[in-house]
Amino acid sequence: MKTIGVLTSGGDAPGMNAAIRAVVRTAIYNGIKVMGIQQGYNGLINGNIKEMDLSSVGDIIHRGGTILRTARCEEFKTEEGRQKALTVLKVFGIEGLVVIGGDGSFQGAQKLSHAGIKTIGIPGTIDNDLAYTDYTIGFDTALNTVLDSVSKIRDTSASHGRANIIEVMGRHCGDIALYSGLAGGAESIIVPEEDFDIDSICKKLIQGKNRGKLHSIIMLAEGIGNAFELGKEIEEKTGIETRVTILGHVQRGGSPTAFDRILASRMGARAVELLIEGKSGRAIGIRNNKLVDMDIDEALEMEKKFDKDIYELTKILSI
Does the structural domain 3-138+256-301 have CATH classification 3.90.640.20? Predict the structure, then answer.
């Protein structure tokens, strides 16, 4: 293999740059040319591609976001759009492709693999919603970003004797809310995988107040009702002043943690190794701290299992 391409697609995640760096440097180390594809599949279709060298990825391992930029591309979902992409890959002599992104990005990689392009997927998404891997690149950083905010909100909530609903990302996967709720000592955690009872939440808040608790934190995964309406209902039922904080896209940014930098570096290097071995249609993951790779079709078919043991633990520890 003489030339490979690398792109980032979908939502950005801290650690993507570390993965890009590892792909580029591992490839060059092995005498392979690397083409950087700008703005994901959109850039692939439009030929927004430049050769990368060692300097291209210098001083980026600590940076959030993605130097290749990213975009969502509706055109690539069409047969005509994918044919354009295949033509561009041929024109640039790209024989293998590394795709860094989440579920939608992997579906694109899957289509290219079926079309004959050697393709490897690296999981880069803060939601941690890919079932085949224990962790995705960016999740740990997002978790720590949320925890930092929880600590700050706790300070002001305690000063005023308030309850605070903190809405985090995770429309279909509650891992950010779950793990930040456990680590941040939240009283209640509301996630898409589990039904919640507003009266039980209110009862816990009142019991906490009666024993002298100065504040309460409720972690809410986005998309489960309206946070402000939920806050209003809680305040009406408990008499406890309730504020809402929506963290939004701050969770996507920031310098990646050591964990995400190391994970991304390992996965980026492994992606190049798999291409050198002639592998295609593989998704790289991590299980029990060991890198694994599996058929991307199988990876996409796997159903994400919610960790009910952790969820039950949060209930025990928040009494």
Answer: no
